[in-house]
Amino acid sequence: MMNLSFEPTLAASYRSAPQKVRVLSENWVRREGYCPSCGSSSLTKYANNNPAADFSCDKCREQYELKSQKGQFGPKVVDGAYEAMLAGLASRRNPNLLLLNYDDKRLQVTNFIIVPKHFFVSDVIEQRKALSAGARRAGWVGCNILLQRIPEAGRIFFIRESKIEPKQSVVAKWKRTLFLREESDTARGWLLDVMRCIEKLDKHIFSLGDVYRFEAELRQAYPGNKHIKEKIRQQLQVLRDKRYLYFLGRGTYSRAEMPE
Fold first, then answer.
1. 24 C-beta neighbours (distance < 10 Å), count
2. In this predicted model, what pLDDT tens digit does every residue of 226-239 receive, in sequence order?
3. What range defines the domain where residue 237 resides?
4. Predicted model pTM
5. CA separation (Å) from 142 to 21, 82, 87, 217, 258?
6. Which CA distances in Å does 99 have to 73, 159, 168?
7. How far is CA 217 from the centre of its chain?
């Protein structure tokens, strides 16, 4: 069972609030976290300022970047250099993203989420304005991660509103979408868009016609594609073949049950 509390004595020598949060949250993840890919509790903390990631699983070598803040994350998460992020996506060396919320009064974790790396595509990354000429890193260009463009299936809770999710459920939800790693960047983008459309329906059972309602939205996202309905059918077939969806016949599908 996870202990949700930080160890405040570890940050007693730090004056800066961000440094204190970094030390407390990183220690908590190393102590209480586990790898959602293999279930191992052996997470190694990289040296500070490692450009690649913050943690690595000793067993399966999955890498993780940690973002921590008081209160819930909004639709955007501030991240590092824009070009480095795009390069990481192109090489598929980008880390998985851990999002941690904490209660600063009780010094306890309230939400802890994993966003698997295979949910990151270029249109999830937003370029920020370059730093002004008077800034210490003048001209540097950062990026935002657009959480609102990531399907719910790509936001897996270890802890939700201080409630700990069973490990077997977290690992099962991780494995459910691993098929996305097999897809090309373009194919993955289409699949993620259709997954978001299905989630917007807010139905367990839906029809092909229901998904066709998003034709205009998808046409705007892919203005060069003249066969949107055909692409929708193709993505539904892939999601069916990967058992993300079940085909019930006569143009009707059901969403596979999320493991609890």
1. 23
2. 999 999 999 999 99
3. 185-255
4. 0.93
5. 22, 5, 13, 28, 35
6. 8, 10, 20
7. 23
